[in-house]
Amino acid sequence: MDSKLLWKDEYCLGHNAIDFEHKKLFDIANQIFAIGNPRVNSERIKGLVQEMYDYMTHHFEHEEKFMAEISYAEASEHKQKHQKILEEMDKVRSNGEGFNVLEMNLEYIMQEWFAVHILNEDKKIMERIESYELKLYYRYCRPGLHS
Ligand SMILES: [Fe+2]
User: Fold this and answer.
1) From CA 12, how far away is CA 19, in angstroms rounded?
2) N or C: which end of the chain has fewer CB within 10 A?
3) How far is CA 118 from the centre of its chain?
């Protein structure tokens, strides 16, 4: 089955752990979209939406820890943007309007909030570590840092 959300190369930031987490969030969302019959699989949908909310929380915490490590100047503005996405995700989690609305809202969050956030905001953090040494440090020397 084709995935509804497509991962694009331009989403890759060059930070292995963060890229992995971003891809995993796309993957969980696609698992939700791939559910055939929402009436039969309602418990599975609930479980996956909760998993997605939890993983997103965990991922944002990692990113915020990373911003603190590199003394990123715009960390608090960035954190507010994470909060906003989580609020939207929380609305999906407490969705009472059925699978179609849930699917539509989730797709909107991932395309219009999350992917745009990666391209506009997360990329700015990476520009901060553009120096060769730091890049090497975060790519290769500490692969388990955020796992
Ligand atoms: Fe972010």
Assistant:
1) 6
2) N
3) 8
Ligand 1 centroid, distance to 38 Cα (angstroms)? 31
CATH 1.20.120.50 describes domain 14-141: yes
pTM value is 0.85
Q: State pLDDT tens for residues 45-76.
A: 999 999 999 999 999 999 999 999 888 889 99
Please tell me the distance from the alpha carbon of residue 57 to that of residue 125, in angstroms, as a whole number. 18
Contact 49, 102 (CB under 8 A): yes
Phi-psi label, residue 98: left if phi above 0, alpha if psi -120 to 50, beta otherwise? left
What is the 50 CA–ligand 1 centroid distance (Å)?
20
Instruction: Say how far apart CA 58 and CA 110 lie, in whole Å.
Output: 16
User: Ligand 1 center to residue 32 CA distance, Å?
Assistant: 22
- What's the CA-to-centroid distance between 108 and ligand 1, angstroms? 17
